Hints:
Blueprint: H1 3-15, H2 22-35, H3 40-52
Amino acid sequence: MYFTDRGIEELEKRRGDEEVTLAWVADRLQEFTDTHPEFETAVERLATWLARLDDPDDE
């Protein structure tokens, strides 16, 4: 199991019943990269991937 899997499982366990907006997630990601700038590229890649997930032009 990867550390990422454990983090995702913890997120699901702790926050799985909550409903949040995309703006809330974006704010949390920005806070995270402000605190941990070494992850800015990874967060940017995740955000771009999510933004283009259902875009048929990117397949």
